[in-house]
Specification:
By secondary structure, the protein is α+β, with helices and mostly antiparallel strands. The chain has helices spanning 45-51, 114-145, 151-178, 373-387, and strands spanning 5-7, 40-43, 54-57, 59-74, 80-84, 89-94, 101-102, 107-112, 196-200, 205-210, 217-218, 223-228, 232-240, 252-257, 265-276, 282-290, 301-319, 324-326, 329-337, 340-345, 347-351, 355-360, 367-371. It has a six-stranded antiparallel beta barrel with strand order 4-13-16-15-14-17. A five-stranded mixed beta sheet has the order 1-2-20-19-18. A four-stranded antiparallel beta sheet has the order 5-12-10-7, with no helix packed on it. α2 packs antiparallel against α3. The longest helix has 32 residues, at 114-145. The protein is elongated, with a radius of gyration of 34 Å.
Length: 391
C-alpha cells in the first residue's frame, strides 16, 4: 500500500499511478523501495516554507574530469604543540586528560623541582648584585665630578654594572620561561622559594595525547602533552610529477575517509609544494579543509578528487548538495507538484565540491530539490520508522 508522510493540517489519498506520470524513462528501482512502496513526502505550503525547500530544474553541462589521489589528514604546524617541561623534576599533578578542550595558558600539570628554588635564588643574587653595582657606579660618578675619583674607576664601575644587568636579565628570563613570577617567595617577608613549576598550554585546542603519569621523573624537552586545534585541518596529497600541471592553488577538492563512508568533504588547494620527492617522483599538495565538528582526525587516510577542466559530452548535472544518501543509495528529491516530493535513486558519474553529474535517474528540466533535501530525508526516515514502513 502506498504510504505518504504528511506534514500540516490534513492528509489526502495518493494515487500510485500518478507517481509515474512523466517518469516512464526511469528504472522502477529509482521510484520504489524493495517492497514496491513509493518513497514520497507530501508537505503543506506552510511546511515547505518552514523547511526552506528550494527547487531548480535539472540542466546539462560538460562533465568535469577529476584527478584521483591518495591523501592523509594532518594538522597545520601553527595549530599544534608538543608540550614539555622546562625543568627537571617530578610530575606531581596532572590537570587534563586526552579529549579535553583547553585554552591558551591553561594549567596542564605541575612539576616539583628543587631547581626552581635554585633559579629563584640565582635571580635574587643577580638582583642584589645589580643594585650594588648601580649604587657603586652612581657614587663614583659623583666623586669624579668632585675631582676625587679617577675616570678609570668610573669606567670600571660601568663595566661591572653592565655585567650585573646582563646576569639579572638572564636570571629573570629563566624564571619567565619556567612560568614563575620573580616576586614570589620573598625571603624578607618570611616566604619560602616556590618549588612547583606550572606546565601550561601554549595554544588553544584539544588534548590529543598525553605521556604523563603522576610521580614520574621528567627532564627538559621531554614531551608530555600533544595539543591540536582541529577547527581547520590539512589534506596532504601526493601528485606525480607528470600530473603537476593539472593542479594549482584555488582548485576545489572533494575527498572521502573510511570513518565516514559515503560522505564527501570539501577543501581548497592552498599550495603546491616546491620539492619533488626523489624516489616516488611526487610533489606534496596542501589542501585546507574546515573541520568545525572535528570529524576529521590527524593521520586519517583519504581518497581525494581534484576537479579539472570540463571535458567530454554534456550530462545531467545537479548541485552536489541536492544528492543525499537514503538506505545506502544516492537519491535526489524531485518535486512532482508543489509540496509533493519523490525520492529518486540516481547514479553519480562524477562529482565535485559543487556539482554532481548523473548517469541516470533524472531528466532535463525536472524540478530537483537543491535546498532542504536533508529535511525531506529526515521526514521520510522518521515516517518509515514511526509508521512501520522501514525498508
Amino acid at each position: 500500500m502506498t504510504w505518504l508522510l504528511l506534514l500540516g493540517l490534513s492528509c489526502s489519498e495518493h494515487d500510485g499511478h500518478d507517481d509515474h506520470i512523466g517518469h516512464e524513462d526511469h528504472d522502477d528501482a529509482g521510484e520504489h523501495d524493495e517492497h514496491g512502496e513509493d518513497r514520497v513526502v507530501k508537505l503543506t505550503p506552510a511546511a515547505v516554507n518552514a523547511a526552506r525547500i528550494r527547487v531548480e530544474p535539472a540542466t546539462t553541462s560538460a562533465q568535469v574530469e577529476t584527478l584521483s589521489l591518495p591523501g592523509r589528514i594532518a594538522l597545520d604546524p601553527r595549530r599544534e604543540a608538543l608540550v614539555s617541561a622546562w625543568i627537571s623534576g617530578q610530575l606531581d599533578a596532572i590537570r587534563v586528560r586526552p579529549g579535553d578542550t583547553v585554552a591558551k595558558g591553561q594549567l596542564l600539570a605541575q612539576v616539583q623541582s628543587p631547581e626552581l628554588g635554585e633559579a629563584v635564588a640565582a635571580f635574587r643574587a643577580a638582583l642584589a648584585a645589580d643594585d650594588a653595582a648601580d649604587a657603586k657606579l652612581a657614587r663614583l660618578i659623583r666623586l669624579e665630578e668632585d675631582g676625587v675619583a679617577a675616570q678609570s674607576q668610573v669606567l670600571t664601575a660601568e663595566a661591572e654594572h653592565a655585567a650585573t644587568v646582563g646576569a639579572l636579565e638572564a636570571a629573570e628570563e629563566r624564571l619567565r620561561i619556567l612560568g614563575v613570577d620573580p616576586t614570589v617567595g620573598d625571603p624578607h617577608e618570611g616566604d619560602h622559594f616556590p618549588s612547583q613549576v606550572p606546565i601550561r598550554a601554549p595554544i588553544a585546542g584539544k588534548v590529543l595525547t598525553t605521556d604523563a603519569t603522576v610521580g614520574q621523573r621528567v627532564e627538559p624537552g621531554e614531551s608530555l602533552f600533544h595539543i591540536g586545534d582541529l577547527d581547520e585541518v590539512w589534506l596532504l596529497v601526493d601528485v606525480y610529477e607528470g600530473q603537476l600541471g593539472l593542479v594549482s592553488a584555488g582548485q576545489s577538492v572533494t575527498f572521502t575517509v573510511d570513518a565516514w563512508p559515503g560522505e564527501r568533504f570539501v577543501g581548497t588547494v592552498e599550495r603546491v609544494g616546491d620539492w619533488v620527492q626523489p624516489q616516488a617522483r611526487t610533489v606534496e599538495v596542501r589542501v585546507v579543509v574546515p573541520n568545525p565538528e572535528h570529524r576529521l582526525k590527524p593521520n586519517m587516510f583519504a581518497q581525494a578528487q581534484v576537479a579539472l577542466e570540463a571535458t567530454g559530452p554534456e550530462r545531467i548535472v545537479v548541485p552536489a548538495n541536492a544528492v543525499t544518501l537514503l538506505d545506502g543509495q544516492s537519491v535526489v528529491f524531485i518535486e512532482e507538484e508543489p509540496g509533493h516530493y519523490e525520492a529518486r535513486g540516481v547514479e553519480i558519474r562524477s562529482q565535485t565540491a559543487t556539482q554532481a553529474w548523473l548517469s541516470s535517474g533524472v531528466n532535463v528540466g525536472e524540478s530537483v530539490v537543491v535546498d532542504g533535501a536533508f529535511a525531506l530525508k529526515s521526514e521520510l526516515e522518521k515516517g518509515e520508522l514511526g509508521e512501520g514502513h522501514a525498508h
